[in-house]
Write a structure and sequence with these properties.
Blueprint lengths: L4 E7 L5 H10 L13 E3 L10 E5 L7 H10 L2 E7 L3 H17 L9 E6 L9 H10 L3 E6 L8 H13 L6 E2 L4 E2 L1 H14 L6 E2 L1 H12 L5 H14 L4 E2 L2 E3 H13 L3 H10 L10 H4 L11 E3 L1 H14 L6 E2 L1 H7 L24 E2 H14 L1 H11 L1 H4 L9 E3 L3 H7 L6 E8 L5 H8 L4 H4 L10 E8 L2 E9 L9 H4 L3 E7 L5 H13 L6 E6 L14 H7 L6 E3 L10 H11 L17 H25 L4 H18 L1
Parallel strand pairs: 1-3, 1-4, 4-5, 5-6, 16-18, 16-19, 19-20, 20-21
Antiparallel strand pairs: 2-3, 7-8, 9-11, 10-11, 12-15, 13-14, 17-18
Length: 644
């Protein structure tokens, strides 16, 4: 909505332009009328729409044509004043003023016009018979008001209609010739209907209608009022009400009726509540609310956001198979102006045997978008109506900005739920296979993936000590001479080499020595394609010797060339190392499998420290109650025993 309204009054001399303005301000007809009234500003608190209004007078005697043209270009609405008892002033409306205004305004942004018939006190008949053909001829004319500056008749109504023509224009909504809503208005109202249809059954039931009414107008409808609304629709269309709920056709009919009865402010209130501007486009403020993300911090969805996305999934998973078919995905994104997910999404997240995105994969894709491009995630949530359904100020309320990673290292703990693992290696080393295996796809399933549908990302959940976390794998394209900050910024690094290719490990060794040897980022070496024959690597040190020298975990054997689903232990270990980056010493036990036992011991020590701190508090407070002492102690000991 506009922040202010600028009204310009034009017309032939002596038709009463200045008298109208002065009668409005002083609430009485002036004894002496100057040639031109000074610009007047009406404060927001005394206008019906709560918007400051500027009223500008034009005088042919005092102003030049150039000044008139400047005022026309600045005006939001123009009132063409004529005298009801002066036929010449009426003729000038079409012969002079409307063509002049049209010549001085852009065709794509016509300024609304109000025809004002002044001096109605001097005649007994109305001028509307003469004016109606003019109104039908020019679409820019919003309405016509007959008034009297002398008797104060319709003065305040005149300026209210002028203000309304700016704040609630009919032009973008309705085509008077066709007597129907314009396509852009239908598109916007259709999105609003789908967002408000919380169970996606194609009708707005009483609960949904009441929620919609409360959202837009801050008050629910009484039961009788709801029935009256539905009865109006029933009387005018056969398929406007179904199962005692309002259909999309009925919803659109109601708004058509509002506009035809001059209540287009009702439709505009709905449109603006759902984020639309005067051009029926979603505003930038609505789609991209302000969200500050300091450096070295990440962005995640919070609990309410996941609950909302879960409700959206359930709403569109019509067959209840915990997966979204292509048609269900298409239906979900009908409220978007474009399809946000491409075919590569199916190779980024988990899918079922039919290749449909599962519930876990659906949430994973949202998590990935929020982590990599939070502004795009805000935009998507805006299309789905998150801030409206959850009654939040904006979609920013769905986002958690994590604390600086440096603080996590200092405190030796993290509150994050999403961890990034960059996967580096020479071409053909098996990086793509490593990513797809995380999504449960063996080599046979991976061979079905089209080359143009491949993804450089894979994201899914892992469990670390019973906590669900997201691990995001990013395949970094091999370019040893240059790795960008994005290639280096991560929580854990995977260096992948092919045990069957003699020059594969050399790339990993060089990358580690140049970029990660002095880094605080944990690194893991993956010996990929372990089902093949291992050959000697053409490097001064063997992979095992290299890892021992640099205090890294021994190379972890990995293969996805199997009939069953690939094992996910290695991904759990990567997530654990990302959660505890300060525990970087190599595991010295001989099992070659317990990659994160040091982290496990560290967690036990932290729990023991917590027990000691609890005991100190109890002793200090001299408290021996069951709640303060024995219960916490029992829970701590139980947790330690579980870990052991």
């Amino acid at each position: 909505m506009r922040k202010d309204v600028r009204i310009l009054l034009v017309g032939e001399p002596k038709v009463g332009k200045t008298s109208l303005i002065m009668s409005l301000v002083s609430e009485e007809f002036p004894d002496e009328v100057p040639l031109r009234a000074e610009e007047i500003t009406i404060p927001a608190d005394v206008t019906p729409e709560r918007v400051p209004t500027h009223i500008v007078d034009y005088s042919e005697a005092e102003q030049s044509d150039e000044q008139l043209y400047q005022e026309i270009s600045k005006a939001n609405v123009i009132c063409i004043v004529y005298s009801v008892n002066n036929k010449k002033s009426i003729e000038k409306v079409t012969s002079h003023w409307i063509p002049l205004i049209n010549d001085r305004t852009d065709k794509d942004s016509r300024v609304p016009l109000i025809l004002v018939g002044n001096k109605s006190d001097l005649v007994e008949h109305s001028s509307m018979e003469t004016i109606l053909p003019i109104m039908n001829q020019y679409q820019d004319i919003e309405t016509c008001v007959e008034c009297s500056a002398k008797n104060l008749k319709n003065i305040s109504e005149l300026f209210y209609y002028a203000q309304k023509a700016v704040l609630h224009p009919t032009g973008p909504l309705y085509c008077p010739e066709e007597k129907e809503l314009k396509p852009s208005c239908i598109k916007a109202l259709t999105r609003i209907f789908k967002v408000s249809d919380l169970d996606n059954d194609g009708v707005l039931n009483d609960t949904e209608l009441n929620f919609f009414q409360k959202t837009c107008f801050n008050t629910p409808l009484a039961p009788q009022a709801l029935e009256d609304v539905k009865n109006v629709v029933r009387r005018n269309m056969t398929d406007g009400v179904k199962d005692n709920g309002l259909t999309l056709k009925g919803f659109l009919f109601l708004h058509t009726l509002f506009i035809q009865r001059g209540r287009h402010e009702t439709t505009w209130t709905v449109l603006r509540r759902f984020g639309y501007d005067d051009d029926l486009e979603l505003t930038q403020e609505y789609l991209f609310p302000l969200l500050k993300v300091p450096g070295d911090c990440t962005t995640e969805l919070n609990h309410n956001a996941y609950l909302f996305l879960q409700s959206v999934f359930d709403k569109h998973d019509k067959d209840r198979d915990c997966a979204l078919s292509p048609d269900e995905v298409k239906d979900l994104f009908k409220v978007f102006p474009y399809m946000p997910w491409g075919p590569d999404v199916n190779n980024t997240v988990c899918t079922n045997d039919q290749g449909w995105i599962t519930y876990q994969g659906y949430l994973s894709q949202w998590t990935l978008t929020t982590y990599l491009d939070v502004q795009r995630s805000l935009e998507y949530l805006g299309y789905l109506g998150y801030s409206i359904i959850y009654e939040q100020e904006s979609q920013a309320a769905a986002i958690t900005v994590t604390r600086n990673k440096r603080i996590d290292l200092q405190k030796k703990q993290t509150q994050r739920s999403v961890f990034r693992c960059n996967v580096l290696g020479a071409r053909g080393s098996g990086k793509s296979g490593f990513l797809q295996a995380f999504l449960g796809r063996n080599l046979q399933r991976q061979r079905r993936i089209r080359e143009d549908h491949k993804s450089l990302y894979a994201i899914s959940t892992t469990y670390v000590y019973g906590q669900e976390k997201y691990l995001l794998l990013h395949e970094v394209m091999p370019d040893f001479d240059f790795l960008s900050e994005a290639d280096l910024a991560c929580d854990v690094v995977c260096l992948v080499y092919d045990i069957n290719s003699p020059r594969s490990f050399e790339y990993c060794a060089k990358v580690y020595k140049q970029y990660f040897i002095d880094s605080k980022t944990p690194c893991v070496v993956i010996a990929a394609k372990s089902d093949l024959h291992e050959v000697r690597q053409h490097y001064s040190l063997s992979p095992h010797e290299f890892c021992r020298k640099h205090k890294l975990h021994p190379p972890q054997p990995f293969t996805c060339n199997m009939t069953e689903t690939p094992n996910k232990d290695i991904y759990t270990r990567l997530t654990t190392m990302a959660m505890y980056p300060h525990a970087r010493l190599r595991c010295m036990c001989a099992c070659n499998r317990c990659t994160y036992c040091l982290c496990q011991n560290l967690l036990k020590l932290e729990l023991l420290r917590n027990i000691k701190a609890q005991l100190r508090r109890v002793v200090f407070n001299r408290c021996c109650s069951y709640t303060c002492f024995w219960l916490p102690l029992f829970l701590f000991l139980l947790h330690v025993l579980t870990l052991c």
